[in-house]
Specification:
The strands form three sheets. The protein has a five-stranded antiparallel sheet with strand order 1-2-3-5-4. With 759 residues, it is α+β, with helices and mostly antiparallel strands. The protein folds into three domains: 167 residues, Phosphorylase Kinase, domain 1 (2-Layer Sandwich); 242 residues, Transferase(Phosphotransferase) domain 1 (Transferase(Phosphotransferase), domain 1, Orthogonal Bundle); 317 residues, no CATH class.
Length: 759
């Protein structure tokens, strides 16, 4: 027999051998039969069982001793399980010591263990004795978790963590003793507040939020043994009758103690993983105690949780814990759970609710919940800010440690400015952009054009005043040469614009036309910057300015409409795993877009610039709403990845994407040069002179689409060059933004029925 002293060392090898023998199916069958016969009131002969497995006699004897003891303690029977043992009175069995502990009575029972109120004989103190029944020891994982719980708590010496006094094993029964706390759990406190407000006290079965074993011990033992719990309950009731601000400060003080205790545990490499109101005990002195380290993860030991296991209480789990990936868990999962506990304490309702486990899991993973002040406007704004910081769905945006949370709660209690900040305007814009990707795409394009024009360097021949004719002649020659170069470039860009307007009129949203317009727009901005100081060109530049504005208006809707058009392509629908119903709805959707587009096109002929832009914006917004209804959230995320792939090298023009990739100035400049080179290569490969191929195709020539072929080749090569400029980290981010590559996605803009509406 091993006495439960703090310094006792167990023989690990011997225990492992016993666990291996206990896994023998013959042994399990015999023990179960023995237990069943005891429950039926029979007196089985132990020798009959031992004779069946003599090689397991030692471990079987120990197991049967444990069954005898547990049977007597649970049922209070005075009969013995062996014909060789004399009868014992039931009261003697209940008081039969378990190691150094005399059991007084059973006060709580959980799924894995039983807790008794006991007296430690050597010290004469009352303790809570947690006992692992024999049937649980047959499961090696349960036994190891029980031992880990005891060992983890025993190594934590903090004024707000329930201390473990001793760990031991007697007659095959594992147990450990801990301090008996006089008070209530926060789960009971919240339930009492809810009853006083006339709210339902029922618990969602999917949440697992019931009062745990040790909290039952505290409540049961103290209600019967002393008036402490009733006093504590009365004290709790008075809190709700105080000023609301006083109650919220009291709640913050309680949770600050828990945060400090968890911070201490984290410093020692222990992550609780099951922080919830039921595992936080409040004594009559307003001290909060953290208990139940049964699911704790100790960094110094092997982890008992496999990837995919869902351990903890779902309602209070962090999103990464609910995913079941233990590799993602760190101390911030306890910060989240403590924040969810504080949320429930000040609002008196759970942060996450669901009709079933699946719905609750979705709420947790997506971070859907009401802000505390929407439930109770009397909650201080600073306290709500602390809660929202702690329960952020992204671990990186939470408090980095429980100590940081404790410090902020202390600042709140001391009327000092807290460190946590409410979401900034940028955060709101980021969230808004996720809901309105079409508008952001148009705005991003506009910002890119402005930025490109601002950074474009135009080299005009310096008109230096020279005193000599030779110097003046040289300057004039340079000016004439620059003018010729400008005119040549201008003619080339005008010709390219003519291609987009004349060769592709039947495909106004075609991928080729969209990208040609992007190139044309970029060059027009360069021309405006270069000729801004030339008064002779003001009239012409004014016309160019109007063209640029018109192109920008077109691109705003063309970009959105082109993205939407990808939904009509079979390859995209296959990639998004469209259901037959979605395929049918998509076809109906595009028929409606076609009808709306014809009507809009007629109306835009007489509309002014402002009205035209307003109409285009409404169309883009309506199409985005249509897509939100057509696609599931997962399909929409994948669709956005495919949109980025389809833009090819022009995707880097998106300022938000460039910021996410952290592109350097050199990288941006190099990508810009790649776009320039693509333009030159496209002009060299396209039909010439004057793009006569346009007239040949209109006259019935074979539809070889040389312009599209040339542009497609240039885009493919340009994309490879751009990706080669990225670092390994940037390439990983790019892969995350674009997802699995779909071969040929950059060519999906080529005409394929059905066509989207034409404007």
């Amino acid at each position: 027999m091993t006495m439960p002293t703090d310094d006792t060392e167990r023989d690990t090898t011997h225990d492992e051998e016993r666990l291996n023998e206990a896994d023998d199916p013959r042994l399990i069958s015999l023990v179960e039969d023995y237990r069943r016969r005891l429950e039926l009131g029979q007196t089985p002969l132990r020798s009959q069982y031992i004779s069946q497995v003599p090689e397991l006699a030692e471990v079987l004897n120990e197991c049967l001793d444990s069954v005898d003891f547990m049977h007597r303690a649970f049922a209070g029977t005075a009969e013995l399980s062996s014909s060789h043992e004399p009868s014992v009175d039931a009261s003697e069995i209940v008081t039969l010591p378990l190691g150094d502990f005399k059991i007084v009575r059973e006060v709580g029972r959980g799924g894995m263990a039983v807790v008794y109120e006991a007296v430690q004989l050597s010290l004469g103190r009352r303790v809570a004795l947690k006992v692992l029944p024999f049937t649980a020891t047959l499961n090696a994982k349960q036994l190891q978790r029980f031992l880990n719980e005891a060992q983890a708590a025993a190594h934590l010496h903090h004024p707000n963590i329930v201390p473990v006094f001793a760990v031991g094993r007697d007659r095959g029964t594992n147990f450990y003793a801990m301090q008996l706390i006089d008070g209530l759990s926060l789960a009971q406190v919240i339930a009492q507040f809810r009853r006083e407000k006339g709210l339902s006290d029922s618990d969602d079965p999917s949440s697992g939020g019931t009062t745990p074993l040790y909290a039952q011990v505290v409540a049961t033992s103290q209600c019967e043994a002393a008036p402490t719990v009733n006093q504590c309950s009365a004290h709790i009731s008075t809190l709700r009758t105080q000023r609301p601000t006083d109650f919220f400060r009291t709640a913050a003080a309680w949770v600050r103690q828990a945060a400090a205790a968890l911070a201490y545990a984290h410093d020692l490499g222990v992550i609780h993983r099951d922080v919830k109101p039921a595992n936080l005990l409040l004594d009559e002195r307003n001290n909060l105690w953290v208990t139940d380290f049964g699911l704790a993860q100790v960094q110094a030991t092997g982890n008992l949780t496999q990837t995919g296991d869902l351990v903890g209480t779902l309602r209070y789990m962090s999103p990464e814990q609910a995913m079941g990936d233990r590799n993602l868990l760190d101390l911030r999962t306890d910060v989240y759970s403590l924040g969810a506990t504080l949320y429930e304490l000040i609002t008196l309702q759970p942060m996450h609710t669901g009709k079933n486990r699946g719905a609750l899991l979705q709420c947790v993973s997506e971070g859907e919940f009401q802000h505390p002040r929407k439930i109770n406007p009397q909650i201080p704004e600073e306290l709500e800010t602390i809660v929202l910081k702690a329960v952020n769905v992204t671990a990186e945006d939470r408090y980095a440690s429980a100590q940081e949370m404790a410090d902020d709660l202390q600042r709140f209690l001391s009327d000092q400015p807290i460190r946590a900040r409410r979401p900034s305007a940028i955060d709101h814009i980021r969230k808004w952009s996720r809901r309105h990707p079409g508008a952001i795409a148009a705005g991003t394009l506009l910002l890119f054009v402005i930025a490109a024009g601002a950074i474009t360097t135009a080299s005009l021949v310096a008109m230096e005043q020279q005193k000599t004719k030779a110097a003046l002649a040289r300057e004039q020659a340079r000016a004439e040469e620059a003018e010729r170069g400008f005119q040549q470039a201008r003619h080339a860009v005008d010709a390219l614009f003519e291609v987009s307007e004349q060769e592709l009129p039947s495909m106004p949203l075609d991928n080729s036309r969209r990208r040609i317009l992007q190139i044309v727009l970029s060059h027009y901005e360069d021309f405006i910057a270069q000729r801004r100081g030339d008064e002779r060109s003001q009239t012409e530049l004014s016309k160019v300015q109007n063209k640029v504005r018109a192109i920008l208006d077109d691109l705003n809707v063309i970009q959105q409409s082109f993205d939407n058009r990808l939904i009509a392509i079979d390859a995209i629908q296959n990639e998004l795993a469209f259901t037959p119903r979605q395929t049918q709805d998509a076809a109906s959707l595009f028929e409606r877009w076609e009808s709306q587009g014809v009507a809009l096109r007629e109306a835009m002929r007489t509309a002014d610039g402002e009205q035209r832009r307003s109409d285009l914006a409404k169309v883009a917004s309506q199409q985005s709403n249509d897509l939100q209804k057509l696609l599931t959230p997962a399909q929409m995320r994948r669709f956005r990845q495919l949109v980025i792939q389809s833009r090819g090298v022009f995707a880097f023009q998106d300022s938000e994407l460039a910021t996410t990739l952290e592109l350097t100035d050199d990288q941006r400049s190099a990508i810009r040069q790649i776009e320039r080179s693509m333009f030159a290569e496209f002009l060299a490969a396209a039909p010439s002179p004057g793009f006569d191929g346009i007239h040949e195709r209109r006259s019935g020539a074979p539809s070889s689409k040389p312009t599209e072929v040339a542009l497609s080749a240039a885009l493919s090569e340009g994309m490879q060059k751009a990706l080669a400029l990225l670092s390994a980290d940037q390439r990983r981010i790019w892969n995350d933004l674009t997802g699995p590559e779909v071969p040929g996605v950059e060519k999906l803009g080529l005409p394929l029925p059905p066509h989207p509406p034409r404007f």
